[in-house]
């Protein structure tokens, strides 16, 4: 291929998306956010600021349950923001937790903390008048919400693996370092939210560039055999390779992502591609190379095809790999074999090799709130008051009370028991997940978080009546095809189509390395239950010993496996 042909593949010419203009004209993410904050006529943000606040970790939302009623009353929607904190690897101290807990109760309209499946938490329902004090509170306790949304590198995930504590510590430190390394350098966040004076000429973005990335970008650090971070949902993944108990380097996997648009065959979920092994010391160089390639080559004319997965498909693996080597100065070697065998969290107590105890608490859909039945939020706060270790949020929306010494174990356990935090949960429930969806998500098409608990009760009954009550199927619900609930990597995935209606996908595998294919389109709950019932009965009767549901439906020909998603996902 000559240079001209190559360039026409690498850089897409054409009319840029309006989001590119917004970034270009934002003066490094400032826009007129400050003026908007002072505007008392509306509870929301206007013009470009609506998008710009996302770079500062906030989304403007309104409660969709009451939207129609407010319109009827000729009222503006009740605007508020959802704030997403930056928490690489999900680690949070007990002091930080208590401050967040108090804030959620006193300053948000929903009163909850929502653990996300990217190891952090969201606070929904912060009114405009309270936004600045929220950022000041976060700053005081050593946290921020910088770059947790929009076209930047998002919260970095790393395996929650309390057992192998030393390796884990190292990987966690790296997650923090990478997160800092890839942060926007603009001082806009400090100026707008923390009243820090403008420092002239510091707005240089050596890595992200003046118009930042073409689209969101996601990174994981994985310690095999655990794939609890669901690496294939991410743009850039580092798989830790350990020899003689020493971390020697990483296998590099690039180009995962789960979103699609209903009916749009130019969009598809994709698993990440293996690019080879490189030594530990080069991780920042390789990360910088990959992210700057995506910055330069990602499609800025079409946000639906702007993610790394599409860039790789467009330019090809060979060219992408050569460019990584050229930009990083690292020769990628043949990958070192590794195995993945789990995705779920180990709920309950576990002892690490550092002799400390770790208690993983199951939190349904990550929603931490008190109700008349259960004082979940209070219980965790009570633990935070006495716990001398730290908390860790998992990529399965659960929380680990980490680093408990032997003599404190009973104290923590009695609080957990008192507040019902250690109730008996079925394996099926532990391995199921839903995205937020209604009422806060503006993109939701069907219920997810509010749908899953009762739906699971029905699935649990079906499992029991077929004699497989002790087993589980990785089951996930996502309220729209953006795929936040990672249903595309489930053995059974429901993807919201309209209120009460979903596409049913099956055939993903237990460890999250295969995309699930659509089995039935646009069906309601009764139809879903009927299909799943028959499938589970078939699996229970005819599967080999230890054969997982996702593998079974493929072996017996109920569904064809997705082998190369870019080509065969829509077949
Ligand atoms: Fe997500 C947008 C919630 C993980 C793919 N996601 C949204 C928004 C912000 C809606 C919006 O744009 O206005 C949702 C806010 C709902 C609310 O009210 O809280 C939202 N996403 C979530 C969370 C909270 C789901 C959860 O239940 O845990 C997760 C927050 C993660 C975090 O802490 O950073 C979340 N989102 C994901 C994942 C899974 C993952 O990252 O492992 C995906 C699929 C993986 C991927 O990126 O391919 C995901 N979210 C999206 C997309 C589609 C992006 C795309 O490639 O097209 C959108 C829409 C968009 O960006 O345009 C989106
Ligand atoms: Fe909202 Fe859709 Fe994401 Fe669910 S999958 S949180 S409905 S954007």
From TrEMBL:
Annotated binding of [4Fe-4S] cluster, by residue: 435, 441, 480, 484
Residue ranges of domain Nitrite/sulphite reductase 4Fe-4S in the record: 177-331
Catalytic function, reaction form: hydrogen sulfide + 3 NADP(+) + 3 H2O = sulfite + 3 NADPH + 4 H(+)
Positions bound to siroheme: 484
GO terms for cellular component: sulfite reductase complex (NADPH)
HAMAP family tied to this protein: CysI
EC number(s) recorded for this UniProt protein: 1.8.1.2
Annotated gene: cysI
Quaternary structure and interacting proteins, as annotated: Alpha(8)-beta(8). The alpha component is a flavoprotein, the beta component is a hemoprotein.
Alphabetized GO MF terms: 4 iron, 4 sulfur cluster binding; heme binding; metal ion binding; NADP binding; sulfite reductase (ferredoxin) activity; sulfite reductase (NADPH) activity
Protein name (record): Sulfite reductase [NADPH] hemoprotein beta-component
Pfam families xref list: NIR_SIR (PF01077), NIR_SIR_ferr (PF03460)
Broadest EC class assigned to this enzyme: oxidoreductase
Biological processes, Gene Ontology terms: cysteine biosynthetic process; hydrogen sulfide biosynthetic process; sulfate assimilation
Keyword match 4Fe-4S: yes
Keyword NADP: yes
Gene3D superfamilies listed in its UniProt record: Sulfite Reductase Hemoprotein, domain 1
InterPro entries with a match to the protein in the record: CysI, NiRdtase/SiRdtase_haem-b_fer, Nit/Sulf_reduc_fer-like_dom_sf, NO2/SO3_Rdtase_4Fe4S_dom, NO2/SO3_Rdtase_4Fe4S_prot, NO2/SO3_Rdtase_4Fe4S_sf, NO2/SO3_Rdtase_FeS/sirohaem_BS
Cofactor stoichiometry and binding remark: Binds 1 siroheme per subunit.
Record key words, sorted: 4Fe-4S, Amino-acid biosynthesis, Cysteine biosynthesis, Heme, Iron, Iron-sulfur, Metal-binding, NADP, Oxidoreductase
Pathway entry: Sulfur metabolism; hydrogen sulfide biosynthesis; hydrogen sulfide from sulfite (NADPH route): step 1/1
Origin species: Candidatus Pantoea edessiphila
């Amino acid at each position: 291929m000559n240079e001209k042909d190559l360039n026409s593949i690498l850089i897409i010419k054409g009319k840029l998306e309006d989001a590119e203009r917004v970034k270009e004209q934002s003066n490094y993410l400032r826009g007129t956010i400050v003026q908007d904050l002072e505007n008392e006529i509306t509870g929301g943000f206007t013009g470009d600021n609506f998008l710009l606040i996302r770079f500062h970790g906030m989304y403007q939302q309104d409660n969709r349950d009451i939207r129609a009623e407010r319109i009827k009353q000729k009222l503006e929607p009740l605007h508020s923001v959802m704030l997403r904190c930056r928490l690489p690897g999900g680690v949070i101290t007990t002091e930080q937790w208590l401050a967040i807990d108090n804030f959620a109760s006193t300053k948000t309209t929903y009163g909850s903390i929502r653990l996300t499946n990217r190891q952090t938490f969201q606070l929904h329902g912060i009114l405009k008048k309270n936004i600045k004090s929220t950022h000041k509170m976060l700053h005081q306790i050593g946290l921020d919400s910088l770059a947790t949304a929009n076209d930047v590198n998002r919260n970095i995930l790393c395996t929650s693996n309390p057992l192998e504590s030393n390796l884990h510590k190292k990987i966690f430190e790296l997650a923090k370092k990478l997160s800092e390394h890839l942060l926007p350098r603009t001082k806009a966040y400090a100026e707008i939210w923390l009243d820090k004076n403008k420092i002239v000429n510091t707005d240089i973005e050596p890595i992200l560039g003046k118009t930042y990335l073409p689209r969101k970008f996601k990174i994981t650090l994985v310690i095999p055999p655990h794939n609890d971070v669901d690496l294939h949902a991410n743009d850039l993944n580092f798989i830790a390779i350990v020899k003689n108990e020493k971390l020697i380097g990483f296998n590099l996997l690039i180009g995962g992502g789960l979103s699609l648009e209903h009916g749009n065959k130019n969009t598809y979920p994709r698993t990440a591609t293996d690019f080879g092994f490189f030594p530990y010391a080069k991780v920042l160089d390789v990360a910088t190379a990959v992210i700057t390639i995506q910055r330069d080559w990602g499609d800025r004319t079409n946000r639906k095809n702007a993610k790394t997965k599409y860039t790789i498909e467009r330019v090809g693996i060979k060219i992408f790999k050569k460019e990584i080597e050229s930009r990083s100065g690292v020769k990628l070697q043949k990958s070192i074999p590794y195995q993945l065998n789990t995705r779920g969290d180990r709920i309950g107590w576990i002892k690490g090799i550092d002799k400390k105890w770790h208690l993983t608490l199951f939190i349904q859909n990550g929603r931490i709130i008190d109700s008349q039945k259960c004082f979940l939020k209070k219980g965790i706060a009570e633990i935070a008051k006495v716990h001398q270790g730290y908390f860790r949020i998992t990529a399965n929306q659960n929380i680990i009370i980490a680093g408990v010494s032997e003599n404190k174990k009973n104290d923590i356990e009695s609080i957990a028991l008192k507040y019902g935090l250690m109730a008996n949960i079925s394996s099926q429930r532990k391995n199921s997940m839903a995205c937020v969806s209604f009422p806060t998500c503006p993109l939701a098409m069907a219920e997810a978080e509010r749908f899953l608990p009762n739906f699971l009760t029905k699935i649990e009954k079906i499992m029991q009546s077929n004699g497989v009550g002790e087993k589980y199927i990785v089951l996930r619900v996502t309220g729209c095809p953006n795929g936040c609930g990672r249903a595309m990597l489930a053995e059974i995935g429901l993807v919201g189509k309209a209120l009460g209606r979903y596409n049913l996908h099956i055939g993903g595998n237990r460890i999250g390395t295969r995309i699930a294919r659509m089995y039935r389109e646009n069906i309601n709950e009764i139809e879903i239950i009927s299909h799943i019932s028959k499938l589970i009965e078939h699996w229970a009767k005819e599967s080999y010993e230890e054969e997982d549901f996702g593998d079974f439906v493929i072996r017996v020909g109920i569904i064809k496996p997705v082998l190369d998603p870019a080509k065969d996902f829509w077949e």
